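ping. complex inputs:
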Amino acid sequence: MNAAIGETVSVAALLGVLAWAVIRPRGWPEAVAAVPAAAILIAVGAIPVGDAGTEARRLGPVIGFLIAILVLAHLCDDDGLFKACGAWMARSSAGRPRRLLILVFVTAAVTTAVLSLDTTVVLLTPVVFATAARLDLRARPHVYACTHLANSASLLLPVSNLTNLLVFATSGLAFGRFAELMALPWLVVIGVEYAVFGRFFASDLAAKGPGSRTRPEAGDVGLPVFTVTVVILTLAGFVAASAAGVSPAWAALAGAAVLAARALARKRTTPLGLLRAADVPFGLFVLGLGIVVAAVVDNGLDTALRPLLPAGTSLPALLAIAALAAVLANVCNNLPAVLVLLPLTVTSGAGAVLAVLLGVNIGPNLTYTGSLATLLWRRSLRSHGETPDLGEFTRLGLLTVPAGLVLAVLALWAGLRAMGG
Amino acid sequence: MTDSDTAIRSVYIWIAEGTWRASVDAALSLAPDGVRFTLLHVTSPDAADTAHGAYRGLLGRGGPDPGQRLEALASISAADLIEAAARRLGRPCDRLEIQGHTERAVVAVSADADLLIVARDGDRSRLGPKSLGKATRFVVDHAACPVLLVWPEAAPDVGTIPPPPHHPHHRGP
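pong. complex structure:
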């Protein structure tokens, strides 16, 4: 197929897939559009069957890895891990809002890093809200902290974010090496978030009454020791497997399998429950989207975007790459953004792809839904007067994202220089 | 003007997390007998909206929307809070639980009240200037009814007010 026609068809397919994902007609899963779109592009020859196969072979293990993490997190929730975190935060905060904020920061940052941002958004945020309400504290700063850190604290490990897994699979970095290079940017960004939150929510964080409305929660449980041990061993398994040249996805699978077997034996879950936690439609969506994006990139986007991307890993180059990634992530979403930018930057080395990650992971905090497209669609759906307070969310994003991004890139650059990129 | 024109018949008590006891206590100690109390709590959609937005940002993920879970939790928490306030008040009262933009909702529903009792939020370590939090400041500024502004705890010392700026006539003869 002629490249111009191929590009036109591919771009149309990508726009269709993204529009579907934003609008979600009848609440149907995103895969309903993404899989047929990929099949059509292969059928009309916009992407050669061999290339689509290569992309599928690249994405397959990544999706498997993610599914194992999602199941692991789901089983941790079933075992009461996040409830136990809530009880621990309630106890340790002694009803003091600023202390609770620190505990929420620690919990959300660690949860995001180890069990991925999905876990923080879906499983931890409700627990944090309930904890604040139970302590008679205003929940707003703590809930915002969860949603912000789900993005910005997802820098540390390959498993923290699907974007990281995609980079990890392509860049050839070892698990430990990835964590080494991202540790400093991760800490720096969390520090920026904390400094801004403390001032931004000063009023909410001052509101503590003379006593507290704390009531003991029925069924307060201690830390599920077995579950935590399995998670820690899984984490150690990531590093060990990667060092031995084996895919760390196997460690995730082993961890999930141990918890699943135990939960099944104790009748705490069912095979159907596990299948639902695995979120197969999501995996199919990523596969379809990956093939569609590959078609868009191969048919001409790569030559169009390449001049915009500076080569090398000098500080200005890293800053430019991170900024472009953040902008692209905010236009549509960080998943297509990283799929587009990864093939263009992977030749420039580890520094360049990690700079892409800084942009696509920190950037989404600028807009309330992580992308302008989703934001505009949601606004158009709502009648006037019941729109959320976007001004506040955007102000918080403007205070944290540019500062966090620049300082994180500086930290990455310093790390690359100190440890050798 | 007769006494009946200024008599307080309807008192609205704004119940907010962390500071509600002070509002209830002020109502008990300052409002005359026979008034009609209304406990007012506003649930802002901010938290649930933020969670919903973050969930939509996870493009393509299935599973439950934490925004809906937060809405349910917020409604339970608001009911609990109003219940606790009603118990502390210990008098017959109306209960008003509203969803909306907190400070605007408070101003709107209290417009016909004879008194609105508000506990301060914001910086409570000093008397000012600009120590009021955003929500309280908006309500004090915009309220259509008389407002009673109370300290949630003992008020700071008057000495926490900074000295007035120097004026030119202080420079000497």
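The radius of gyration of chain A is 22 Å.
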